[in-house]
Design a protein that fits this description.
single chain, 4-stranded parallel β-sheet, 3-stranded parallel β-sheet, 9 strands, carbohydrate metabolism, lyase, Aldlse_KDPG_KHG, Aldolase_TIM
Length: 220
């Protein structure tokens, strides 16, 4: 059963951020998800960035179903229809992509699934809109910066934007992004760092996630 995409979108807007990561370790992936959930995360993106992505995702879904029934679990870095179909079959709640692939949009739209494509130019944003993207990821946001959002938001009135890359757990940084016109931020390595993964710093991750959620509330 496909979860209502409007509910998932509302959950992302409410949370104000979309945490994302990938690691090869199944156990590590599960523990990171537990730490994020314990800190208050209710929408999360696992990324399709390694050989273990699909089996790890299936394990995360098992854990989600058993322990976290109110968590929306999505998959990111989906560039092809084959990837989209594989993770839809595995039970993803939504799809995030670093690019605009109309064939992936068609698959998602056909089943009423939220599809969040990545865009870097006004032309890409326009194409994403043509394919019914309700939320657009600005990527790589560390290259484009908040000024890009400020410059183009009036061209696409009403469109929801979420930057990924260059977003920090810092009040000034977050306020700058939200002031530019974004509705949420994607948080990857600035939140779930290599140190957190390799050294299993799950308590630190819990603390930083709670802090990020709090700072985002202050920044909106």
């Amino acid at each position: 059963m496909i979860t209502n995409k409007h509910k998932i979108l509302d959950a992302i807007l409410e949370q104000g951020m979309l945490p994302l990561f990938y690691q090869d370790s199944e156990e590590g992936s599960v523990e990171i998800l537990r730490a994020l959930y314990k800190a208050g995360v209710r929408v999360f993106e696992y990324t399709n960035r390694g050989k273990s992505a699909l089996p790890n995702f299936k394990k995360l879904k098992e854990v989600r179903d058993a322990e976290m029934p109110d968590l929306y679990l999505g998959i990111g870095t989906i560039k092809t229809p084959a990837d989209a179909n594989a993770f839809i079959e595995a039970g993803t709640d939504f799809i995030v992509a670093p690019i605009v692939n109309p064939a992936v949009a068609e698959i998602a739209n056909k089943i009423g699934m939220l599809w969040i494509p990545g865009c870097m130019t006004p032309t890409e944003i326009s194409i994403a809109q043509e394919h019914k993207a309700m939320l657009i990821k600005i990527f790589p946001a560390n290259i484009l910066g908040p000024e890009f959002i400020s410059s183009i938001k009036d061209l696409f009135a009403g469109q929801l934007f979420m930057p990924t890359g260059g977003v920090e757990i810092n009040l000034d940084n977050l306020k700058t992004w939200f002031k530019s016109g974004v509705c949420a931020v994607g948080m990857g390595s600035k939140l779930i760092s290599k140190d957190v993964m390799s050294k299993r710093l799950y308590d630190e991750l819990f603390d930083n996630t709670k802090l990020a959620i709090d700072l985002i509330k202050q920044s909106k």
